[in-house]
Amino acid sequence: MNFPGRRRISEIESRVASHRAIRERREQEARQAAEARRREERTRYLTSLLEQEDTAWSSIDAQLRRTTGSAYDQAFQKLQDLAEAYENARRDAVFRRRLAQMMSSHGKRGAWLARLQKAGYLWQPKS
Fold it and tell me: Where along the chain is composition biased (Basic and acidic residues) (predicted)?
């Protein structure tokens, strides 16, 4: 028996599947757009960091002079951002040179050295 205005289960399931596919596609597009915005913002931040590199290095130096764990964490985060910025600009040698200069005044701080060692910014001599 076929009642007018009534749908079959297969029709309902088909519509549900269709709406789900549309929703999932929109969600995927929104995630991709958000990721693209995040990458663009990160690129702008890293570019601005290099434009003010002397200030960034001075900021790291000032944080290290505070000699607290939280200051070391902040300095380390800024250093990682600088490393990424230099890498993106293909200026790794400049980063290594500036890090070496910084180590001349902060190279005896054990907690700082441990952070650098763990991240691979320092090499460990083989015994």
Answer: 24-38
Of residues 125 and 73, more confidence is placed in 73
pLDDT band with cut points at 50, 70 and 90 for residue 127: very low
Contact in structure between 72 and 111 (CB atoms under 8 Å): yes
Question: Please, which pLDDT band fits residue 2 given cuts at 50, 70 and 90?
Answer: low
Angle at 72 between CA 122 and CA 110, to 5 degrees: 50
Tokens representing 39 are 């990458």
Buried b (16+ CB within 10 A) or exposed e, 82-120: bbebbeeeeeeeebeebbeebbeebeebeebeebbeeee
